[in-house]
Sequence to fold (164 residues):
Amino acid sequence: MDQLLYAEGGSPVRAGGYGRLVDVRYGAEGGGGPGMGRRWRDGAGRLVVDRGDGTPLTLPLELAVSYRARTKGLLGRDSINGAMLLSPASGVHTFRMRMPIDVAYLDRRLRVIAVRTMHPGRLGRPRLRARHVLEAEAGVMVGWGLVAGVRVRVEPDADLGVPR
Fold:
């Protein structure tokens, strides 16, 4: 089985010759560098926002990693408790959504690139450096301290973070 490794510059490279490419992401701690974490799976977890004042904020998180889960996203919902992480993703749309949302674009190191509020029926501009997208109800990300440059951590539930 091939594995996705990272070159010194941070770009992904294939290891093990030809075959399937396995997407390796940051795990619960986000430490150890790229490729050292666990793979994420669809399900529940926690989002930890490392705010500038030294007090981390922990929020409920839904992980949408599979194609099916990413495609559905927040469609058909009236609200969300916490946030939803779409991964991999570099852009979103709000067609057929019932509510306005806040969208945070994250790079491969889970650092916020940009935060935007999107109303229903809009197509968001993709961010070239974005690898993940966080979605939440409109207006809440400002209260969480989620602004460009802030780093977040993803802590999947124990039984969802380990590949079987």
